[in-house]
Specification:
It contains 7 helices and 7 strands, in the order αααβαββαβαβαββ. It has 212 residues and is α/β, with parallel strands linked by helices. Strands 3-2-1-4-5-7-6 form a 7-stranded mixed sheet, with helices on both faces. The structure holds S-adenosylmethionine. S-adenosylmethionine (SAM) binds next to α4 and β2.
Length: 212
């Protein structure tokens, strides 16, 4: 298939991207790894022995960072629509997180453990219609929040990618009601022209979370 001007421009930007080069040098599968490394360092998110859920894991940069930092006493359970090459220490579920059965599989992989950190870097497959893509992004973030509330330890954290636009303010409002503190993060590795931003909810608010 002939390459369009835009895809050529994307490829040029991609290969000259400093984070793409760094990821290759350091053995990370994606430049996204550097976003998590920056946020995790600043907010002290990852510690040995933690149980972590990684939503939208492919190709696996965040999972690599997470598995390394939680170490052999920790556990990482990850999900994606697409397959990934295995990562030691990561239990991978392939499927659509919107599907209740897939969420059930994640729950089974947790085997009753409460979670210290839920990560969601899910981005919807783009339709090209901005309003549709924005709504899909909001749906994924909403489902990730629901899952986090259900499985986090009371002092657990939730890091989620959201896209600024319709629905962003109301999602932020819900996050503020569910967590003791909510901060926004735009890591240096996140492209300035992208509307993506990360919300970090720290510690479930009183009354939020699983009732069991
Ligand atoms: C930006 S990538 C994640 C990059 C990853 N954090 C890394 O470090 O390599 C977004 C991922 O979200 C996944 N995704 C989108 N919708 C999903 C869904 N409904 N269920 C599971 N994964 C989904 C996509 O397949 C894609 O791999």
């Amino acid at each position: 298939m002939a390459r369009t001007k835009t895809s050529k421009a994307w490829m040029r930007r991609h290969v000259s991207d400093v984070y793409v080069k760094r990821a290759r040098e350091q053995g990370y599968r994606s430049r996204a790894a550097f976003k998590l490394l920056e946020i995790a360092k600043r907010d002290h998110l990852l510690k040995p022995g933690m149980t972590v859920i990684d939503l939208g894991t492919a190709p696996g940069g965040w999972a690599q960072v997470t598995a390394r930092m939680v170490g052999p006493r920790g556990a990482v359970v990850a999900v994606d629509l697409g397959d990934i090459a295995p990562i030691p220490g990561v239990a991978f579920v392939r499927g659509d997180f919107r599907d209740e059965r897939v969420r059930g599989e994640l729950e089974r992989a947790l085997a009753g453990r409460r979670v210290d950190l839920v990560l969601s870097d899910m981005s919807p497959n783009l339709s090209g219609v901005a309003s549709v893509d924005q709504a899909r992004g909001c749906e994924l973030a909403g489902l990730a929040l629901e899952f986090a509330e259900k499985h986090l330890k009371p002092q657990g954290n939730f890091l989620v990618k959201v896209f600024q636009g319709a629905g962003f303010e109301s999602f932020l409002k819900v996050m503020r009601a569910r967590f003791r503190q909510v901060v926004t993060r735009k890591p240096v590795a996140s492209r300035a022209q992208s509307s993506e931003i990360y919300l970090l909810g720290k510690g479930l608010a009183r009354g939020a979370g699983a009732r069991s």
